[in-house]
Amino acid sequence: MTYLFVSVVVMGCSDDDDYRFPPMHTELAEVRIDGAKNVSEVVLDDGRIYSADRKISSNVADTTLRCLCSYSIDDSGSQESFKIYSISTVVSSLPRPYSSYQNHDSDPVDLLSQWESARYINAFIGYKTTDNGNHLFSFCEDSIVPAADGKLTAYVSLHHSRPSADAESYTKRIYVSFPKYYYEGKTEKVVLTIPTR
Q: Of 41, 72, 89, which one is at a domain's C-terminal end?
């Protein structure tokens, strides 16, 4: 019979033992890009704004992108403790009119979660792929309808177009964010529909 013995030795380290690493957060945010295509500010969905200095792959300078940000910040929430670890863009665009779509059929996705923030309607979705071609996502303004009281509701849908050569091998998961602020002053309500299986 063979026995395996595992020994674990824990050693103390000088005066740094009491140091607490700040918690890591990952959330959607608006990221402002400066003239040199660098991140200048990160605006969190709760309204907090932090300065940042980090490169990001952006084709456009002086713009704002919807991104998924991983960052750390200490309990004080101070600017000095704010540190970005990663930033990646997410699907977010202004709606296109229904008439601009030649094919109105939208390929289905799996809706994993959906929530609303002050300026966006957000969703975490999955779609089947083998990465053989690009899946295209956009938002379609289906209609603007008045209710009995005269108040307007904008009906918007996520439009998903899968490449014909792409097989359904595994599920890729992404975030999408619809900028509902586009309808501020135009309608009283926005309804987002996501085509599911």
A: 89
Contact 173, 90 (CB under 8 A): no
As a whole number of angstroms, the distance between CA 157 and CA 43 comes to: 26
Contact status, residue 195 vs residue 158, Cβ threshold 8 Å: yes
Domain limits for position 153: 96-193
In a domain, residue 130? The reply is yes
114 and 157 within one domain: yes
Encoding tokens for residue 71? Answer: 């960052």
Question: Are 79 and 121 members of one domain?
Answer: no
Q: What is the pLDDT of residues 42-84, one digit of tens each?
A: 999 999 999 986 777 677 889 999 999 999 998 888 999 999 9
- CA separation for the pair 97, 188 (Å, rounded): 19
Rg over CA atoms, the chain: 22
Top pLDDT among 16 and 136 is at 136
Judge contact between 178 and 120, C-beta under 8 A.
yes
What pLDDT shows up at residue 8? 46
Residue 67 CB neighbours (<10 A): 24
Q: Pick from 103, 114, 191: which is nearest to 152 by CA?
A: 191
Would you say residue 123 lies in a domain? yes
